[in-house]
Amino acid sequence: MLSGKRVLVGITGGIAAYKICELIRMFKRQNADVRVVVTPNALNFVTKLTLQCLSQNDVYCEAFNVPEWKPEHIALTESDIFIIAPCSANTIGKLANGLADNLLTSTAMAFKNPILIAPAMNDGMWENKILQDNLERLKKAGYEIIEPETGFLACGSQGKGRLADLNKIFDKVVLFLNTSPIDREVCSQFEMNEKIRKQNEGCYCEKINNKKILVTAGGTKEKIDPVRYITNNSSGKMGLAIADYLYSKGADVTLVSTFEIERPYKVTVAKSADEMFKTVKTIDFDAVFMTAAVGDFKVKNVSEQKIKKTDGNGLNLELEQNPDILRYLAENKKTGQTIVGFCAESENLIENAKEKIKKKGCDYLVANDISRKDIGFDSNENEVYILDRELNIKKFDKASKTLIAKGIVDYIWQN
Ligand code: CTP
């Protein structure tokens, strides 16, 4: 399962250090290449020899004890993952404040791959405000915290602070080794959505609760041949943020997305504009957010075989127009439906948006400026204007797409 993976295990001074002998064996059983770096204090709880035998590698402790040409903390950073367990309050404090006063902390400082920490300590230390602030800081810096458990502690008291179960630590390491950051983001977003929806239960926004809301997201892909296609820069993040927020407010959400994604609500994948059009027409909705960047053109004669190049020649593709989905939905609007369009403009944002809302016939149009690199396409942030039929305009200042989604949805239903 872990063949070819290099796992760096960091051990700090705490009684739970003895448990890490078993964790190292768990990694070894799965054929991982395990290296161990310890703080000097850790060696009060577990011996270097034990760790060497179990990891079948040298155990690193002192900085600048260099058998190879590279400083050890740099050599150790060539691992796929760094799991620090147990991680003491002292080491957490150092990491959170950028201190690198021993080999373990300097390795963490230079480490570019994921760092997971499994704290273990006395319950009073765990509850300490400074420690909790330090953990928040580490989370913001991208560290993954594997929370300790509640139970009987080695110091004799009862409370939160026991090192997390070794299976849980092992599973987290495997998850990080086998998934991309995007997979993990989706996974945690999924858990977060469930949590928020549960928290809101019973006090959903009345106007949104149980409403059937259709959201489209992503850039469509138009086939050229079996391997090539025409697409655009849309990441789908804005559409996802809107669908997630609506779901958290109790809506019956259907997402029609150009990419595969796991969500706690209905998701249908439609890659091309034609597929999206066909899918959207089958869905009954109270409101639609056409967030997808639908390609305006498709290739007229899609080649069944891969198009071969001929020396020195270019390629002419004949394009034809795709259906305008938003316009169709607006023209066929049923009583009580709300139709929201989006537009991305590279110049004259407001003027073009005013024209577009009239042309498309939708109730609201959300406009963003794609000439800016810091917002919009592929970015996590956006800054938008929302127009209604009377051409009233409301601006939402630059913020995360999650906050912009909340702003748009709240604005529409509070109006
Ligand atoms: N849209 C659509 N079908 C299309 C093109 C766009 O439903 N074939 C929708 C988009 O989902 C978006 C809105 O129309 O909600 C505006 O998209 P935009 O690309 O800005 O407008 P276009 O109609 O493509 O106009 P142009 O490219 O000429 O600016």
Low-pLDDT stretches: none
CATH homolog superfamily of the largest domain: CoaB-like
Distance between the termini: 55 Å
Structural class: alpha/beta
Give the helix proportion (percent range): 25-40%
Explain this structure.
- The protein is an alpha/beta fold.
- The mean pLDDT is 91.
- It has two domains: 6-178, Rossmann fold (3-Layer(aba) Sandwich); 204-300 and 318-414, Rossmann fold.
- The chain has 14 helices and 20 strands.
- It is 34% helix and 23% strand.
- The relative contact order is 0.08.
- The strands form five sheets. The protein has an eight-stranded mixed beta sheet, sandwiched between helices. A six-stranded parallel beta sheet has the order 3-2-1-4-5-6, with helices on both faces. A two-stranded antiparallel sheet has the order 7-8.
Can you summarize this structure?
This protein has 2 domains: 6-178, 3-Layer(aba) Sandwich (Rossmann fold); 204-300 and 318-414, CoaB-like (Rossmann fold). The chain is 34% helix and 23% strand.
Give the arrangement of secondary structure elements.
Layout: E1 6-11, H1 20-29, E2 33-38, H2 48-55, E3 59-60, H3 72-76, E4 81-87, H4 89-96, H5 103-110, E5 115-119, H6 123-127, H7 129-140, E6 144-145, E7 149-152, E8 158-162, H8 166-178, H9 181-200, E9 212-217, E10 222-223, E11 229-230, H10 237-248, E12 252-257, E13 266-269, H11 273-281, E14 287-290, E15 297-299, E16 319-321, H12 325-331, E17 338-345, H13 349-360, E18 364-369, E19 381-388, E20 393-400, H14 401-414
Parallel strand pairs: 1-2, 1-4, 2-3, 4-5, 5-6, 9-12, 9-14, 12-13, 14-17, 17-18
Antiparallel strand pairs: 7-8, 10-11, 15-16, 18-19, 19-20
The structure holds cytidine-5'-triphosphate.
